[in-house]
Design brief:
heterodimer; A: about 270 residues; mainly beta; Immunoglobulin-like; 2 domains; 5-stranded antiparallel beta sheet; 20 strands; about 5% helix; B: about 180 residues; alpha+beta; 4-stranded antiparallel beta sheet; globular
């Protein structure tokens, strides 16, 4: 299941070394996604195998970005990084849909040290990698990584968050991202740099994986418009995840760009 | 005197006769008596739904309408989203309170619903559902609906019963 790419998400979020990483899911879990009055929403952020059980590692929130329905940025409150999960509050005061996202962007490099022949690895920005990789390094490969982990919360009537237009992202196709109900069909689109991501595999997994024997994830493919549809079998929190790679790097050293996306959505009974 | 009397009679007849000619719709909702250690009166929404599930009119919303903290919407708007179906279908598009529709939560018992002519006058002929949804703090949620045809062809009193959060729901149709 996209082991390599989930590893990237993990490494980017954790700052872990590449070699020690395992396949884990990075997720945000809001306390609620539908509100009828301005309030405070509490969000958990963690990296773990089980959805949504914080039993592995807290997510770093350096790149947390909360966007209000009018496009303005909202500051998180009461932010804390615990052992197995990070937490923060979001004051949702205006009607419409809020986007809560952790966006990780950076690069990974591996090379062979000329003097010792040792394999070396580093991660960071284009500038920091340029400094770290020696001029005489051999077999240098640099990979750019762009990852987005997000969730949506609505006060009152849902609105459509403005698409980012960069990297891999999920956008609503008419229906709202927080207006999902058991037994109903919802259609979303995946975009890469604002363009439909065609023929891309998407995985939809229901939460509470610790209480069932099978992961029972649903694997779907996007169509020509980059769209995919899900008919929700039960109420609960769901994790939608997709990843891909291409060569449209924005990092001068990198030849390959890895893109990943994960969203948590709530389905009502 | 004689003249005035003869003039008044047709006027009175017209006043009471006219509503009898128009089709009528009335309803009552029963809040059941529940034996629980912690009881809060349920939030209730009632509305008229078209065949395609779109909402023709919200006819009643009972919630905590007190304005203790100078909140003109009422204290209870935070929990209106728990009337999930109503909230998705129409509630989130409305501004609370609504004159003649919203009101305080009701105790156990049968409560007549004022289906103002405004609600029925706007109904185009066709198939409808009268839907009642109840959600109770530290309790459950239930939706009960009664299908009906508008305008009615004969006098009828279709009924439906909830099993947990709602009691008897009664419609009164008059051709």
């Amino acid at each position: 299941m996209n082991t390599a790419l989930r590893t990237i998400v993990l490494a980017a979020a954790l700052g872990a070394t590449l070699g020690a990483a395992h396949a884990h899911n990075a997720w945000l879990l809001p306390s609620t996604t539908v509100l009828s009055k301005p309030d405070t929403v509490s969000v958990d952020a963690a990296i773990s195998n089980d959805l949504f059980v914080a039993n592995h590692a807290a997510m770093r929130l350096d790149n947390l970005l909360i966007t209000a329905p009018d496009g303005s940025t909202v500051k998180p409150e009461a932010q804390a990084q615990l052992k197995h999960r990070s937490v923060f509050d979001v004051n949702v005061g205006a009607p419409g849909t809020y986007r809560i996202a952790v966006v990780n962007a950076g690069g990974f490099a591996s090379w062979k040290d000329k003097a010792t022949g040792q394999q070396k690895r580093a991660r960071g920005t284009s500038e920091s990698l340029a400094k770290e990789i020696p001029a005489d390094a051999q077999e240098v490969t640099v990979t750019q990584s762009v990852g987005r982990i997000e969730t949506f919360v609505t006060v009152g009537k849902p609105s459509a968050p403005k698409p980012i237009g960069q990297g891999l992202e999920m956008v609503s196709t008419g229906g709202a991202l927080t207006d999902l109900a058991k037994g109903e069909k919802a259609t979303f689109a995946l975009h890469i740099d604002g363009q439909p991501a065609r023929d891309l595999e998407v995985t939809v997994t229901a939460g509470n994986t610790q209480y069932r024997d099978q992961l029972a994830e649903v694997k779907l493919k996007t169509d020509d418009k980059g769209q995919f549809s899900v008919t929700w079998p039960a109420a609960g929190m769901y994790w939608i995840d997709a990843s891909t790679k291409d060569n449209k790097t924005t990092m001068p050293q990198a030849k390959e760009r890895r893109l990943s996306y994960a969203a948590t959505v709530e389905v009502m009974p | 005197m004689q003249v005035r009397y003869s003039l008044a009679l047709p006027a009175v007849a017209a006043l009471f006769g006219a509503p009898a000619l128009a089709a009528g719709l009335a309803a009552s909702i029963e809040v059941p008596r529940l034996n629980t250690s912690e009881y809060h009166r349920p939030y209730v929404a009632a509305w008229i739904e078209r065949a395609d599930n779109s909402v023709a009119a919200t006819v009643a919303v009972w919630y905590d309408v007190r304005t203790r903290t100078n909140n003109p919407e009422g204290e209870g708007t935070k929990w209106l989203k728990d009337l999930r179906q109503w909230w998705r279908r129409t509630g989130r598009d409305l501004e609370m309170p609504i004159d003649g529709v919203t009101g305080a939560t009701k105790p156990a018992g049968k409560h007549p619903i004022n289906l103002a002519d405004a609600a029925t006058a706007k109904l185009a002929p066709g198939a409808y559902k009268f839907v009642v949804e109840a959600a109770r703090e530290v309790g459950g949620r239930e939706v009960v609906s009664i299908p009906f045809q508008w305008p009615p062809t004969k006098a009828e009193q279709p009924m439906a019963s909830g099993s947990s959060e709602l009691g008897e729901i009664k419609l009164e149709l008059k051709p």
